Protein: Alpha/beta hydrolase
Organism: Deinococcus seoulensis
Amino acid sequence: MKVSALFLSLLSFGLTPVASAAAAAPQTAPRAATQVLGTLPPAPNRPPIPATPPRTATETMPGAWVRPGEWVSLGGARPSYLQAPAGCPERACPLVVVSHPRAQTAERLRDSPQVGTLIEALLRANYAVLLSSDGGPVTWGSPSALSTVGVAHATATRRFHWNGRTYALGLSMGGLMALRSALPGSPYQVSGVALIDAWVDLDRAWGSDLVRRSEINTAYRPDARPIPDLNPMVKVLAAPPMPLFIVNSLDDTTVKASLNTDRLLGHAQQGVSEFIPLSGPHLGGNRFSPAVAQRLVNFFDRLATLPLRGAGPGETAERP
């Protein structure tokens, strides 16, 4: 793709003002209506959560629980950022790990008003949020990057009242990391994956553009096309169906939906997964509307009704 197109998509994602509520409402693309895959169980009832205090960037003493409502930096030169919700000290909460688009950082996500709409909805619903550095701006879900996120996850889950459940949210390039973290070999367990305009086929990304190819070669350190074992798309096709929340658009010329997330629909777990087709360009404003944010929360809520993978009958999901 041309660099100018990427530059414009990044500007649209992080810097343009949020559209009005009417303009930001999801617009259904002609191909299909929004659909929940299978019969939808009711979301669990939750007690009201206190309003989240204003966010600030701060550093707390290592090992201490984070103060709700504050962003805490985890790591050094390329930090991840953790925030716990206001209700978490009294009631254990799950963690959502957010992986960023190409050429971006956790700081960029933290400061983006569009992404802030999703984050604030999650915090209000008693989800802790980890904005992942993904090991760098162009790591493309590499094994080294996944190890870095694993360290951040282990650190983060000792800094708040964690209930043992982790979910992943991947934006654009971050889809590779989000999907890979839910597959065998991940350093932490993921109970559900949300993908917005996401790359999920590493081989397609490698073959789509010479600049992307160079970045992927550097991240994976091969001299040629990455082997299939490193491609999340190949691995997910061989895995059992998983809970998926997919937002994409046929108008997206940066990440072609038909070659990426559309191919996951047959591998989504029935009854809890959801597919939201929108219109508009890559990472357009309607992906970050309050309506989409609420549906994202509802998706993660539905997963709370499922047994935690690896936990036997009567076992708690919380860390001992």
Remarks:
- The longest helix spans residues 143-156.
- Strands lie at 35-36, 57-58, 71-74, 80-83, 93-99, 128-131, 162-171, 193-196, 244-249, 274-278.
- The first strand starts at residue 35 and ends at 36.
- DSSP finds ten helices and ten strands in the chain.
